[in-house]
Amino acid sequence: GESVGLHLPTLSVQEGDNSIINCAYSNSASDYFIWYKQESGKGPQFIIDIRSNMDKRQGQRVTVLLNKTVKHLSLQIAATQPGDSAVYFCAEIKNTGNQFYFGTGTSLTVIP
Amino acid sequence: EPEVTQTPSHQVTQMGQEVILRCVPISNHLYFYWYRQILGQKVEFLVSFYNNEISEKSEIFDDQFSVERPDGSNFTLKIRSTKLEDSAMYFCASSQDQGGTGEQFFGPGTRLTVL
Questions:
Q1: pLDDT recorded at residue A77
Q2: Do the bridges between strand B110-114 and strand B10-13 make them parallel or antiparallel, or are there none, so unpaired?
Q3: Cβ pair B42:A95 closer than 8 A
Q4: B65 pairs with which residues across the strands?
Q5: How far is Cα A84 from Cα B47, in angstroms, rounded to an integer?
Q6: pLDDT band at A93 (very low <50, low <70, confident <90, very high)
Q7: How many helices (H) and strands (E) does chain A have?
Q8: How far is A23 from chain B (nearest CA, A)?
Q9: Dihedral angle at the C-alpha atoms of A18, A106, A36, B47, nearest 10 degrees?
């Protein structure tokens, strides 16, 4: 399943399928990006980060892709599990600053 | 595993009252942050704090807000005279390095309800 981030804030996928969550960031000067997962009633939890000098970074079951030309960030989750159900936020920051800007978020629901 | 803690988990107050939200960052972290999240909306940056002073703040962080590190472990957010629109989840975060180079660890949040 695929989401267009700010335009489609909900995404439902079958357990075992791959998920793609998209984010359009606003500031071309941003050079560090993070994907956060937020479960109901909890604070944001770091998933994976990427710097602007990279276009892809892989973690365990997750991959982040960065397209600076169109200011687009995506999070791919392989073999989505029920525990992946949460709201996913992208955040951007300038390397010299401390102010993170969060996106609106996409709610991912995994159907067993 | 070390974690950021926040108290109380839920604070209910009357409009116009002062509230203090408390956070204990991870002990070897040097940078501290407050964010808020109004129900159903995105997380918004309020302020960052380093070396006992504010390093950055957003336009939300007006004169009604203040932060303090009163001792070696606590980091507090004070709202002087609460308004209805201050009702939100408030998240504290800390990092070892400056925001652009280090992961920020978030606390579980304090839900503030202003009546």
A1: 97
A2: parallel
A3: no
A4: B79
A5: 30
A6: confident
A7: 0, 10
A8: 13
A9: 170
The identity of residue A103, as a single letter, is G
Residue range B94-107: mean pLDDT, rounded: 80
Instruction: Identify whether the C-beta of residue A55 lies closer than 8 Å to the C-beta of residue A108.
Output: no
Question: DSSP labels for B57-102?
Answer: E-TT--TTEEEE--SSS-EEEEESS--GGG-EEEEEEEESS-TTTS
Is the CB of residue A40 less than 8 Å away from at least one CB of chain B? no
Contacts of B11 (CB under 8 A, 6+ apart): B19, B21, B110, B111, B112, B113
* CB neighbourhood size of B94 (10 A): 26
Q: For B56-76, how does the pLDDT look when each residue is reduced to its tens digit (9 = 90+)?
A: 999 999 999 999 998 878 999
| A87 interfacial to chain B (CB closer than 8 Å) | no
Tokens of B35: 């964010």
Interacting residues of B53 by C-beta distance below 8 A, sequence separation 6+? none
Give the CA dihedral A76, A44, B111, B39, nearest 10 degrees: -30
Strands B19-24 and B31-37 come out as: unpaired
CB A38 within 8 A of CB A86: yes
Rg of the Cα atoms in chain B: 13
- Window from A3-12, A64-73, B41-50, B96-105 with minimum mean pLDDT: A3-12
Query: How many Å lie between the alpha carbon of A108 and the closest alpha carbon of chain B?
Result: 15
| Euclidean distance between CA atoms B109 and B115, whole angstroms | 19
pLDDT of residue A112 exceeding 60, the answer is yes
